[in-house]
## 1
Amino acid sequence: MWLHNLCFLARFNSQVVRLLTGIEIHPGATIGHRLFIDHGMGVVIGETAIVGDDVTIYQGVTLGGTGKEKGKRHPTIGNNVSIGSGAKLLGNITIGENCRIGAGSVVLRNVPDNATVVGVPGHMVLRAGKRVVITDPKEISDPLSDVIIKLGAEVHELRQRFQDHTHEALNAEPDISIDQESAASGNGKKKFSPADLFGDDYQI
Ligand SMILES: CC(C)(COP(=O)(O)OP(=O)(O)OC[C@H]1O[C@@H](n2cnc3c(N)ncnc32)[C@H](O)[C@@H]1OP(=O)(O)O)[C@@H](O)C(=O)NCCC(=O)NCCS
């Protein structure tokens, strides 16, 4: 109807369905095959949103605009994506294929394929099933990764300056010290390497 310039009828139809189900899909949105909206209620899909095939959306999800963009201003969702309840995906962003968006997330940046994004603002915690710290700023904004990367760079520089100043040899790898009140080691302080903490599958 929308494509055939029957805008009023398309809008009317959309509003009737919204009254019945609590799901508001703008008639201009492009929806793929087998979209599954679980529980309905409070789902909003904006006019320029594009939803791929086999996407699952839970209640309270918004595929909306930020209010700052014109033209294509709603998200593009890849195939086989699952979007948890209450998640807000805002702006002309692209969510890659096979992604999972955590319940309650607010996603404002593009998300690469096979990623799991959680939190506010949304940041990637898993990629292809593995925990990740993002080092490429173009990939996705992750406040925690940013802090770790900055600390790593600062430790590197300080070690360099210390060595230049004292000519003292330092251990090759800085360890991370963590207070472990319940640690079995006795003195309450135990040292962990990043590998101890995060396991072999941690990518930096
Ligand atoms: C995002 C999601 C898919 C991740 O599932 P998963 O792959 O099993 O990942 P994990 O549970 O191992 O979580 C990975 C990390 O993200 C965190 N996390 C998971 N979901 C989160 C969320 N919604 N918000 C914030 N952090 C979240 C976990 O605490 C964990 O962090 P940690 O390792 O530092 O403890 C899942 O948690 C989710 O939110 N699903 C939505 C389900 C939904 O909406 N159901 C509605 C039914 S009505």
## 2
Amino acid sequence: MDYTPNGIYLGDAREIHHHIEPSSIALSVWSPPYHVGKEYERDLSFFDWKNLLRRTIEAHSAVLKPGGFLVINIADILCFKDSDMPRIMAENISRRKRNDITREQVVAAWAGNPTFNRKQIAALLGCSEQTVDRRMKGNNIRGGKYESQTRVKVVGGLLEDFASDAGLYLYDRRVWIKDAAWENSKWHSISYRAVDEFEYLYIFWKPGVTVVDKDRLTKDEWKAWGARAVWNIPSVRANDDHEAKFPLELPRRVIRLLSSPGDTILDCFMGSGTSAVAAILEGRLFIGVEASPIYVALARKACDVAIHEVLNRLDFEPPVSAEYSQRKNYGSQSDQMRLLIERSRGYVPEAGDVIATGTPPGVGPLKAGDLVEVRIAEIGTLSNPVIGGDEVF
Ligand SMILES: C[S@@+](CC[C@H](N)C(=O)[O-])C[C@H]1O[C@@H](n2cnc3c(N)ncnc32)[C@H](O)[C@@H]1O
């Protein structure tokens, strides 16, 4: 099993069960390709795409802990190509007021001039050849940007079936309200379609004992989002380094709600590393799997930044009236910490392991009665009294 916690791996979501320890993942949270023509899914037919989801969900039945969760963020396909969708030009009353050419006018012009070609009819009516063509052949009644025959494809049912076949049950679902994509909706202004502004979170459960810990969130958080079906979270402002990032707040909420500190979180469509960053910030372990080497590098970098952010906020908090011979925040030792992180990548400490680090000159020897205390905010304090013997350097 070569995908151990706290690593981002170049790999295929469909194959995770060959690389991850069985029953080791408390929570898997990911957002797959949506079959909407992004660069990283260009080669996938609809059939391939369904297979990708089916096989990835299937692989989860092995890697999830009993009682654990799989959370899938996805949206319905709003412009699903379907050549059976009738091409019927919408009756556009508002445009007609502005003297737009109607189908009836084109038909009448051709009836009066049966030898005319399309170009001549267009010149006669004072419109473009494209308009003549659209009025005669029909158009996509939904307003098509690239395709003339599209409809909505609901994906929730597909996921439910794949999960059910894999022994996972639909436990809950939430709706994420994102920024309204007004810019993308201009082209369907002559239809009754709504602007694209929400996605889903489908929560699947693997049968087994599930820890229910109401202390994971504060009372206010339970009220604001923990117990709410609709989550309002702004979209990522700039998808400049990856074309489909979800906002950090999304996996962060899922992680806080459905896992405990120390649990291992999986994202097998890792992208830019958002879920791993959320796991790090929330004190969880993570495994990331991503098919693109460029995004693997991006995600690893994001993790390093997050680890430093966490380390920088750690501090030794002095107990009242204690005397200190050394008191330092990790932020002031970031080079050493970077080295430590690099060296320890891929190594998972277990309960009882000892991590020994040195101290700078001048701190002095330890002697019987001293107390060595490491306090990590949000995690706890490790106290070791020095009980006797020779001085320790
Ligand atoms: C919707 S994006 C995920 C974005 C991610 N949530 C983030 O915030 O950056 C889907 C990602 O899955 C990756 N991908 C596509 N097919 C894959 C596969 N078979 N196995 C693993 N990753 C894959 C793509 O390269 C892309 O980065």
## 3
Amino acid sequence: MYGEGGKGLMVPQSPFSTFHFPFSHLFPFAFRPFTVALFLTLLIGLGVLPHPALAAEAITLIPTQAPNVPPPIQRSAQARVKVELEAKEFRGSLADGTDYDFWSFGGSVPGPFIRVREGDTIELTLKNDPHSTFPHSIDLHAVTGPGGGAKVTQTPPGEHSSFAWKALHPGLYVYHCATPHVPTHIANGMYGLILVEPARAALPKADREFYLMQSEFYTQGPHGAHGLQGYSMEKAEREQPDYVLFNGREGSLTGEHALKAKVGERVRLFVGNGGPNLVSSFHVIGEIFDQVYPGGAIGGPIMKNVQTTLIPPGGAAIVEFTLDVPGSYPIVDHSIFRAFDKGALGMLEVSGPESLDIFNPGAAR
Ligand SMILES: [Cu+2]
């Protein structure tokens, strides 16, 4: 199998006869094919080696648009995964009566949610829409390598670029465009999240998972001005946004778009911050986070019983909580002018039976 001309490593006829392994005398046990097969099976099971079936063919990933998250990964081995993203510039709604010329991944702000597993090799293709005005690129914070991929994905309109990378570290990571002038590409909407699930010790089961990404917009007119609003570089440099939003639009998570869950369910929020400038003080009014994975880091210390968690631009957090009481739970940046006056407000509507021992709205009457 491995040897040539009867020398080196050979697989003999009998499964229990030894290899002609030149250094076998150095090992305390006999180097037998059965032992080797057992060892390889163990390595495959642990995800150290790829399963032969997965090594042959790549999985094509279907990312989701916010607030939706792809289902948890069921496979127990690493794989080759194909992901395709398209840079798209489009005119869309920033708020009721207010339009904006967004730059995006996939025609949505934020871009699609990508879910892979630690040890996966991701073959990423970035297309740039032929109707684009500018080149675009991608820097994924989950990538180990120059520019997170930005150097090899500078892509002119109508063209595409590809690179492959191995997901070495589990966690929730931001990706964004990194084409000069980088802050402008980010300010116009080019960011999203990628989750690298851990190979061992999977995240605990959640009943509902949602994708939220905070970011700012800097417009020529003030907050609430109607019509098409251009980008204000001057306001962006002064870090004075007119809009601070979840999922790229004022009202994206309120009214008919509110998130929904039931009493007794465990909710997990994957929260990112595209910035480009402001640190988020992420808070859900009326809830306490049972667990926070600060920085979106998986495998490190977990914070328990958290009221508000900081999420910097280019950073993320995973927050989890179980719902005990029905009602409306506002999701805010607790730098509170942003929630009341600049749009950083979502809503989680929780239905189900009351628990009057936990919260009794009538007890004081
Ligand atoms: Cu770009």
## 4
Amino acid sequence: MLLVTGGAGYIGSHVALELMRRGREVVVFDDLSRGHRDLVGKALFEEGDLKDLSRVRAVFGKYPIDGVLHFAAKSLVGESMAEPLGPPHGVSTPWGQILILTVCVHYYLYSLVALLTVL
Ligand SMILES: NC(=O)c1ccc[n+]([C@@H]2O[C@H](COP(=O)([O-])OP(=O)(O)OC[C@H]3O[C@@H](n4cnc5c(N)ncnc54)[C@H](O)[C@@H]3O)[C@@H](O)[C@H]2O)c1
């Protein structure tokens, strides 16, 4: 099973659809801050914030995930230029990127594809 973070967004939703078209099982993880539930289609859906470590670990515990395609991001260019490290109080995009990498390592998961223009 593949986990698609940000799978309710523009790129992630298309990738999730294509993976399912190719017969892969997909679970989408998205906080819907920028995405749309309707775009998830028939994929399994888990709503949550990537920066919530316990929530992410719960999803990894629930499904037999063997690969991650990581698209969750706050991807507006102006926003990332104004606050490259994200808003204060730990609610930043880089923090989410670090956490997903940490969880992948914890689960000995070496299949990670990340599309990141916002770091
Ligand atoms: N759209 C493009 O043309 C393009 C081109 C190159 C690279 N990228 C990169 O690809 C990635 C995805 O871009 P997109 O256009 O699909 O953006 P998008 O905003 O449509 O999708 C991002 C998704 O991530 C979700 N998300 C945001 N923060 C989250 C969090 N903390 N926890 C869980 N979910 C969260 C949003 O709800 C949204 O559904 C970004 O890193 C972007 O910079 C996009």
